[in-house]
Amino acid sequence: MFTSVLVANRGEIACRVFRTAKRMGIRTIAVYSGADAKALHVRAADEAVLIGPAAARESYLDADRVLAAAKATGAEAIHPGYGFLSENAAFAEAVMAAGIVWIGAPPAAIRAMGLKDAAKTLMVEAGVPVTPGYMGEDQSPERLKAEADAIGYPVLIKAVAGGGGKGMRRVDAGDAFLDALGSCRREAASSFGDDRVLIEKYILSPRHIEVQVFGDAHGEVLHLFERDCSLQRRHQKVIEEAPAPGMDAATRAAVTAAAVKAAKAVNYVGAGTIEFIADGTEGLRADRIWFMEMNTRLQVEHPVTEAITGVDLVEWQFRAAAGEPVPLKQDELAINGWAMEARLYAEDPANGFLPSIGKLEHFVLPDGVRIDTGVEQGGEVSQFYDPMIAKLIVHAETREAAAEALAEACGSVEVWPVRTNAGFLVRCLEHPRFVAGDVDTGFIGAQQDDLADGALPTPEAVAAAFTSLGGEGEMDGWNGASNDTTSPWSNGPFAFRMNGRGGARLGLWFDGEPLAAKLEGPQTYNDMGEHFGFTVETPDGQFHGYGSPGFTFVDGRPFSAFCTPAAIVIFEDGAAHEFKRRRASADGGTASDGSLRAPMPGKIVATPVKAGDVVTKGQPVIVLEAMKMEHALNAPFDGVVGEVAFAVGDQVAADAVLAVVEAGT
């Protein structure tokens, strides 16, 4: 076994690999960019090397710099994590040529499975069922559209070199094909340096089933059962689970056998995943599951497989890379209980799921569940990398218990001012269709209206904000309070009174709208003024609030609060509700004046309209590429485009006015 390992990655996967390495007594080495100098994975390692500036292409994707860091530190092995260089065959070869152990798939397997069209051809030859589609060399728009027309809509356009949901578009009708193709190609070229695509028949009620496989250098290949990753948004996985709901023994035997056959076809070594697409219209059936692609690396969702099998897949990777056989035989593996994982993203569901960046001034994740993360309170979410900031993983005896535990964990997330999808995750996990196991890849789109509920605070959360405001000794408006701060009659709610309780009418602002409440109290508090109790009267009713700074009960329901000089933030079921202490100045970037502002720095990749064009509400006006994804900024109302301030290829700063839509007359 090697004695040192460099992880050619960042964030939560680097921290995850380090945990196993430290347990095994292996020295750990991190690499980092200029943006990650204070990152958690840097401090988690025994040694760390700066490899370049913030941009991934000049740091984490620069194979020469990573290899130089390994040589300089005497690293005996390199683990690539996932993403970045993990499926780069040339990098794997360079590592091995330098006499360093490569903890990943053989370069030949990476190449064989790296291009989706070639991989499908190989699978057909190996007898693995694949979905119908076009994988030809002719990449002209005319040929691609003709093939899509012949296959029949809906179809799926997929980047040949794609992964992670990038470079992928569903097309429901022929007249939308060319626009979708252009967007897909731009994203593919930006993410993978290759704009070639293939066309697949889009399966109605599709379920994403994948099988964890593992091989050693002695020819042994086995599976560690399946995962269901059907809950997706824009082809990005959101919640994963193992095993797959509704999977019977016969179907499991068929799909796992196909996965092992696929891995053996490329002489696979190490951890890999064979991804299948299943037609779920009649439940899971062995004859309705087709090969989709192979990921020749560890997967983001590998913890759910570890939970149900009791296996440490990273340890297995280490041992396989060191030439050891797979530690267990196939018949020694079994499914134990149910596991689920939720991906916590720094994104704003209330604003079209746009990535949210900035400093994590308040960052609290739940206890009692497995947390894989690469950030901490006081750290920053950077514009340069993927917005996933943590994974929450639970394991229980039944699927129902796992879903309930994961919903509770996501509901306990507290993050500010960076926005997250925690509340959205809770609503997904608690939705009746998900609870029943009735999920396909179109679930989120079909249930969008239901899943959007909960974006607004409940009346109890509003009362909690006012209770926190009163508990701070807020003086404005308190009846009978003296302005003399040395007087016993002052000190807001805690002022001394001969009889009766103090009262006040206080105001807050939420989403630009004023809120008012009448408070009476305090009813009880200790000698230090650390506990308080109020009766809170709002237009929604009367509530009783009690607690201490930062934590409040309203009618027996607990709320956490994070208070800043400008606002009170109440956390409720994963959502963060900001109540401003005073009205903020009007935001020129809102739909009220029609200006469309860049939510973060990025590059303009498309301008579908020009000045003078008539547009309707929701119509794309300008397309920005940021954080490795395309984001369309849409017209806020019907009107006329007054200005498009930037051209394709322009780099723009955060909050720059990109275009203006003027209200029609």
The proportion of residues in beta strands is 25-35%
- Class by SSE composition: alpha+beta
Q: What is the molecular shape? A: globular
The number of strands is 39
- Low-confidence blocks of residues: 475-500, 583-591
User: Looking at this structure, what is the CATH superfamily of the largest domain?
Assistant: ATP-grasp fold, B domain
Calculate the terminal CA-CA distance, rounded to whole Å. Answer: 74 Å
CATH second-level architecture of the largest domain: 2-Layer Sandwich
Helix percent band: 10-25%
Question: Which sheet architecture does the biggest sheet show?
Answer: 8 strands, antiparallel
Mean pLDDT: 89
Number of domains: 5
Numbering strands along the chain, what is their spatial order in the largest sheet? Answer: 14-13-10-11-12-15-22-20
Annotation field: number of helices = 17
- Class of the largest domain, according to the CATH hierarchy? Alpha Beta
CATH topology of the largest domain: the name is D-amino Acid Aminotransferase, Chain A, domain 1
Radius of gyration: 27 Å
Task: Give structural notes.
There is one protein chain. This protein folds into five domains: 4-103, Rossmann fold (3-Layer(aba) Sandwich); 132-201, ATP-grasp fold, A domain (Dna Ligase, domain 1, 2-Layer Sandwich); 206-452, ATP-grasp fold, B domain (D-amino Acid Aminotransferase, Chain A, domain 1); 459-580, 2-Layer Sandwich (Glycoprotein, Type 4 Pilin); 595-663, RNA polymerase II/Efflux pump adaptor protein, barrel-sandwich hybrid domain (OB fold (Dihydrolipoamide Acetyltransferase, E2P)). 25% of the residues lie in helices and 33% in strands. It is built from 17 helices and 39 strands. The strands form nine sheets. The chain has an eight-stranded antiparallel sheet with strand order 14-13-10-11-12-15-22-20. It has an eight-stranded antiparallel sheet with strand order 24-25-26-27-28-29-30-31. Strand 2 (27-33), helix 2 (40-44) and strand 3 (47-52) form a beta-alpha-beta unit. Helix 4 (89-97) runs antiparallel to helix 5 (107-114) and helix 12 (399-411) runs antiparallel to helix 13.
